[in-house]
Amino acid sequence: MAAGEFREVEPEHFCMGLLKFSEIAVKPPEDVGEQAELAKVVFEDAKLVREALQKCGIQITSARRKLRSGLGKGDTPFKGGRIHRSAASRSFFESAAKLAEQSGSDTVTPLHLLTSLVESPTPAIAQAVLGNAPVPPPPAALTPLERNGRDLVRQAAEGGVKIEPGVEAQTKVVLQVLQEKDRKSILLVSDSDGLVASVAAALAKAIAAKGAPQYLRARRLIDVSTKEVSKGMRPSPVDEVAEMERMRQLLTEAASHPEIILLVPAVDTDPKQSDGGQWTALLHETLAQGKVQFICRVTPSLLSECLRKDAVWKRQTQVVWLGKAAQGSVPREL
């Protein structure tokens, strides 16, 4: 808008921005942390927009240049200050917000904006970008697992999972448990979330491998282990209720997909304690129903003091120790 000397930001400017955004092809970082997670979201959004444009046969770079040339210049040189959207731009943003709401998304994404633009294109967008290309359909409604989970197997197949050395023995034991027909859930005994993440990454790579055994093919390892509440902060009662409801939705969806293995948050609280234990109790309820196979970390103390004494945990789970003292071992009594 500034370079073109326009008074307001028009839909064509947003369209050019989306076309340029779709050209982002930088590999997402493998680091952890808030900034790395944000970078991964940006990368995935750019990929979705790019795939939608390519599916329609749109030549992205040439369409952007043609649109910029066709739009020409305005008569208001930009001198700084607040930038406003035009009435047409506000209208298409409202349409994008409705698409997001219909798809069950809490956020208006670049794909929603693109869909809104091509469903009601301006003459300049229709001529320069669309031509005779078909209009992409609105984004499909996202399920709870799609909104909250990371498909580690898909990421491994795309080369987006980093494998740490030193977990080969533990990973082999987990694969042996997955081969069994009774579909027991797996408790990884450790005090380290990082070690569990390393085993999960190695497991995802084994499932994604071209020569994977028959029993692993079509399996999906979905990581939902990140809690919504801020790490290191004690959640409020309202936050705790919301978090439990979110996890219940994820477990319910996974129950109808036997190919899914969930990597869930750690079990670290006795359900009988008055100051917590809701998550442990929810997993206990899930195990009793016997429809979901999950992997989670459990502390050695909770295993010995609580879970070993419970019939449901003993019957429906298998233990893999990640500590050096019992590396790769599987106690058969649980």
Structural account:
The structure is a single chain. By secondary structure, the chain is of the alpha/beta class. It folds into two domains: 11-142, no CATH class; 146-326, Rossmann fold, CATH 3.40.50. Helices cover 48% and strands 8% of the residues. The chain contains 14 helices and six strands. The protein has helices spanning 11-21, 34-55, 60-71, 87-102, 110-119, 123-130, 144-148, 152-157, 168-179, 193-208, 237-255, 278-289, 300-305, 311-316; strands spanning 150-151, 185-189, 220-223, 260-263, 293-298, 317-321. β3 (220-223), α11 and β4 form a beta-alpha-beta unit. α1 (11-21) runs antiparallel to α3 and α9 (168-179) packs across α10 (193-208). The protein is elongated and about 80 Å long. It starts with 10 loop residues before the first helix and ends in a 13-residue tail after the last strand.
Topology:
Elements: H1 11-21, H2 34-55, H3 60-71, H4 87-102, H5 110-119, H6 123-130, H7 144-148, E1 150-151, H8 152-157, H9 168-179, E2 185-189, H10 193-208, E3 220-223, H11 237-255, E4 260-263, H12 278-289, E5 293-298, H13 300-305, H14 311-316, E6 317-321
Parallel strand pairs: 2-5, 2-6, 3-4, 4-5
Antiparallel strand pairs: 1-3
Using the CA coordinates, give the radius of gyration.
25 Å
Low-confidence stretches: 229-233, 324-334
Bulk shape: elongated
Instruction: Count up the domains.
Output: 2
Order of strands in the sheet with the most strands?
Answer: 1-3-4-5-2-6
CATH class of the largest domain: Alpha Beta
Helix/strand/pairing class, anyone? alpha/beta
| Secondary-structure element string | HHHHHHHEHHEHEHEHEHHE
Whole-number mean pLDDT = 83
CATH topology of the largest domain: Rossmann fold
Termini separation comes to 65 Å
Number of helices: 14
